[in-house]
Amino acid sequence: MSQHGVNSEINRLLGFLVLCIAVGLLLGHVLLTIIAGALLYIAYQLANMRRLLKWLKHHRLQEVPDANGLWGEIFDLLSRRKRLEIREKKRFKATIARVTATTSALSDAVILLNTNYGLSWWNEATEELLDLKPRDAGSSIINFVRHPEFVSYLESHKYDIPLTLPSPRNMETRLEFQFTPVGEGESLLVIRDITRIYKLEKMRKDFVANVTHELRTPLTVIRGYLEVLEDNIPEQSQSEHLPKALEQMRQQSLRMTTLINDLTMLSKLETDSVNKIQEYVQLKPLLEMICDEARTISSQNHNITLTCPDDIYLLGNDKELHSAFSNLVTNAVKYSPNGKAIKVTASINLANNLLVEVKDSGLGIDQQHISRLTERFYRVDSSRSIQTGGTGLGLAIVKHILLRHDGRLQIRSTHGEGSTFTCVFPKKRIKESENSPKTNASLNSIS
Ligand code: ADP
After folding, report:
1. Which atom of ligand 1 is nearest to the CA of 421?
2. Residue nearest to ligand 1 atom 7, measured at CA
3. Atom of ligand 1 nearest to the CA of 360
4. How far apart are CA 420 and CA 444, in angstroms?
5. Cα-flanking dihedrals φ and ψ of residue 65, to 5°?
6. What separation in angstroms does the CA of 407 have from each of 200, 311, 325, 398, 404?
7. At 184, is the secondary structure helix, strand, or coil?
8. d(CA 388, CA 305)
9. Residues 365-396 as b or e (16 or more Cβ within 10 Å = b)
10. Which of 33, 253, 350, 418 would bridge 361 by S-S if both were Cys, CB 3.0 to 4.6 A apart?
């Protein structure tokens, strides 16, 4: 409301007062005329207030009333607001219609959840995937996906990695759940049908497992015959190349066996349950054994030392842990010239995490390779790796094993100076006293 409107209303009132006084003087009843004028003015204000009230009650149906002066300005402002509101409403409706049409076209289920995971809104695909009906609004999503892993996922507050589960409607169908908190108490759940990708992935794993299994027997036979042949080369062999050829065949068959062993290990890590035989493994004897094996591989050509407190126990699978640490120590031997030092250290850091570190002063790795080292078959220098009998799968195995133990691998290296590979395990997996019960604890029991 402008100052101009108020001023003109005051002017109108003063003009009316002057008129009343003039009429009163003419009639000889000034006071009575002023009172009658004031009553008339109040009646005029009340009438406009009534029109305003009526319009506010039924403003959707009625046009804004017409008036002069201050009331005219009030009604104008209201009329402008009304037009703006109608325009906003139209835009809002169009946006909602667009979002609804887009989400309906999605093949993924999109669900908006309120506090306590209550169903607030969902798209068409959700009705198909979870068999939801309009009457289910407000019910908890847990009533529709009852899998314990889903409940743990929701309550974990760690949603970086989506969860894959069989569909509650059909065990053959695999669903991927991605939960994202979006506002105060609200969250978005996106469910994707990944059955096709899951089946392809399973086929790939089965294929690798079957091929490695099928290759193992013929390779054993070939290696057996090669050994027999090597032991029985006739003194006056017709070909002078024969011993060399047999030696090369033996070496190559050995490489193939290592490759098959590594592929079998990877395939097992991919298919076996994570919770398989978990117990507290005392680190010192395990690392001592690995260092002894490494000294044999190096033919005592490296100075391998171990620093590890007596009483550190790590919850995990001892065979897998042996394989991971052994891969790192063997690499340090393979990629360090004779005479160099290799230090294996286990310690607890300030955050109470366990660090198992393998430090060498060997060839080192250029920075550009470091982020790719744990990829399968990635080699910095394939000729060097093949010479040392490497398959390019060792660090991929280490990474997989650490992931299964909630751990991670840190790599620091300087080309020409040496490398440090550090396995970091969270404190929830560590026990520092011999007296604590040494059980076949499962992962769930410690988390
Ligand atoms: P490989 O069986 O070839 O050793 P890995 O997966 O164990 O395969 O290692 C991948 C590559 O990382 C190796 O080919 C090698 O070039 C490099 N590498 C691994 N460990 C070391 C190390 N301690 N020093 C230098 N290079 C290393």
Report:
1. 23
2. 394
3. 23
4. 32
5. -60, 160
6. 28, 20, 13, 10, 7
7. coil
8. 22
9. beeeeeeebbeeebbbeeeebeeeebbbbbbb
10. 418
Quote the Cα angle for 393-395-398, to 5°: 110
Q: Is residue 6 predicted with pLDDT exceeding 70? A: yes
Q: What is the pLDDT of residues 144-157, one digit of tens each?
A: 999 999 999 998 88
Ligand 1, atom 19: closest residue by C-alpha: 331
The one-character DSSP state at 276 is S
| Beta carbons of 89 and 81 less than 8 angstroms apart | no
Q: How many Å apart are CA 126 and CA 121, to the nearest integer?
A: 10
With beta carbons less than 8 A apart as the criterion, state whether 238 and 279 touch. Answer: no
Q: Tally the residues of the chain.
A: 447
Q: How many CB atoms lie within 10 A of CB 142?
A: 14
Q: In angstroms, rounded to a whole number, what is the distance separating the alpha carbons of residues 216 and 207?
A: 14
Torsion of CA 254, 258, 263, 269, to 10 degrees: 150
CA angle 430, 434, 439 (to 5 degrees): 70
Higher pLDDT, 276 or 337: 337
Element spanning 69, H or E? helix 69-105
Q: Is there a contact between 342 and 333 (Cβ–Cβ < 8 Å)?
A: yes
Residue nearest to atom 2 of ligand 1 (CA): 390
What is the overall mean pLDDT for the chain? 88
SS3 content of the chain, % helix, strand, coil (to 5): 55, 15, 30
Q: Which atom of ligand 1 is nearest to the CA of 391?
A: 2
264-301 burial: b if 16+ Cβ within 10 Å, else e: bbbbebeeeeeeeebebbbbbebbeebbebbbebbeee
Q: From the CA of 331, how far away is ligand 1's center (Å)? A: 6
**Smallest CA separation from ligand 1 atom 23, residue:** 332
Ligand 1 lining (C-beta closer than 6 Å): 327, 331-332, 335, 360, 362-363, 365, 373, 378-381, 385, 390-396, 419
Burial letters 26-62, b for 16+ CB under 10 A, else e? eeeeeeebeeebeeeeeeeeeebeebbeebeeebeee
Put simply, whether the predicted model's pTM sits higher than 0.70 gets the answer no
Q: Determine the average pLDDT of the residues in 181-188.
A: 88
For residue 89, the model assigns a pLDDT of 93
124: nearest Cα among 138, 140, 108, 144: 108
